[in-house]
Write a structure and sequence with these properties.
Length: about 230
């Protein structure tokens, strides 16, 4: 039995409500408010909270108070943003902030500068297949951690000429992607491979990177170029 139930029992037996409240250190105003039930403001807050929960759930938990407030206005529910924020705090709801951008392409200060041999010309041209390649690395989140995908793209056709995947960002990943492209396309000597100025793309080797095709006993020379 809580305080309100005890005072109600005392009141039912025609005993002093004032005396019961003094003994239990409960204000009579609070007791009579309990008897009257939730106030219109409390009922309105409960209804608004249910609407806030619905909007927050529909956003998959991404929306904070400002966006929930804007969505409620769009639905015709005009309420103060501070009120929406207060009810969200009371309900334990909060938005998820966007992840801060992390720069992943960091130039290698020890790498030698190389000329841009394609002169920023990334125009597709079907007559120049296997003449200009470009590449980059993509980060893929998996259940086992980050997977790194290195791709080699033919600028003339916009098609992937080769790729390689690994759980690391070492030079071997890019070399494997280039080897896959050479095995698939069998280009003529002199094809230019264009990459950014990350330490991986620079290979930490010479500007002329040679791959060997052991099946045919020939050597394919790729001129690796970097640009900012």
């Amino acid at each position: 039995m809580n305080c309100s139930q005890f005072i109600e029992a005392e009141k039912a037996q025609q005993r002093s409500v004032k005396r019961a409240c003094e003994l239990l250190k409960v204000s009579r105003a609070a007791f009579y408010q309990h008897l009257a039930g939730p106030s219109p403001r409390a009922r309105a807050d409960a209804d608004l909270t249910s609407q806030i929960r619905a909007v927050h759930k529909e956003s998959r938990g991404r929306y904070g108070a400002p966006r929930v407030h804007a969505e409620l206005r769009h639905l015709g529910r005009r309420h103060g943003r501070k009120r929406v924020a207060r009810l969200m705090r009371s309900a334990g709801l909060a938005g998820r902030a966007a992840r801060r951008w992390k720069k992943t392409t960091i130039p290698d200060p020890a790498a030698a500068g190389r000329a841009d041999r394609i002169r920023r010309d990334f125009t597709a041209d079907a007559s120049r297949l296997n003449a200009r390649w470009c590449g980059d690395i993509t980060y893929i989140r998996t259940w086992e951690g980050w997977l790194f995908l290195a791709t080699v793209i033919d600028i003339a056709s916009r098609r992937v000429a080769g790729y390689a995947m690994a759980g690391h960002l070492r030079t071997e990943l890019i070399s494997a992607a280039l080897g896959n492209a050479v095995a698939a396309r069998d280009p003529d000597p002199g094809v230019i491979f264009h990459s950014d100025r990350g330490s991986n793309g620079g290979f930490n080797q010479s500007s002329q990177h040679c791959l060997s095709d052991r099946s045919q006993g020939t050597r394919r020379q790729l001129r690796l170029v970097s640009s900012s």
